[in-house]
Design goal:
By secondary structure, the protein is an alpha+beta fold. The protein has one helix and three strands; from the N terminus they run αβββ. It has two domains: 51 residues; 52 residues, no CATH class. The chain is 36% helix and 32% strand. Strands 1-2-3 form a three-stranded antiparallel sheet, with no helix packed on it.
């Protein structure tokens, strides 16, 4: 009984240590990428090099209408302030979309 408790305790400690290590590696990778972008590097989504980090805010409204049984038409409007978490981007951005869904 005592040895199984020791094994569980040791296993729990190992999990905590591994989680902390993974967290540190994730933070280091994020910091490396942030430094790369700040040095003028291009990102897949942000792609503009130097960033002025800021809070991104999004407001969204949508409406869905059942056109007929099994078919829906939806419209969506989004307004994004500081897109890409960057104060230097031109914004706010307005996005309008539509969707037609049919269920068989």
């Amino acid at each position: 009984m005592e040895s199984s408790r020791r094994r569980e305790s040791c296993s729990d400690r190992s999990i905590v240590v591994l989680e902390k290590l993974a967290s540190r590696q994730k933070k280091a990778a994020f910091q490396d990428h942030r430094e790369y972008l700040a040095a003028g590097g291009l990102g897949a989504f942000l792609g503009d090099g130097r960033l002025s980090y800021g809070r991104e805010a999004i407001a969204e409204a949508y409406y869905s209408l059942q056109a007929y049984r099994g078919a829906h038409v939806s419209v969506d409007y989004q307004r994004i302030w500081n897109p890409g978490y960057n104060f230097d981007r031109h914004g706010p951005v307005n996005i309008l979309s539509a969707r037609f869904q049919v269920e068989f």
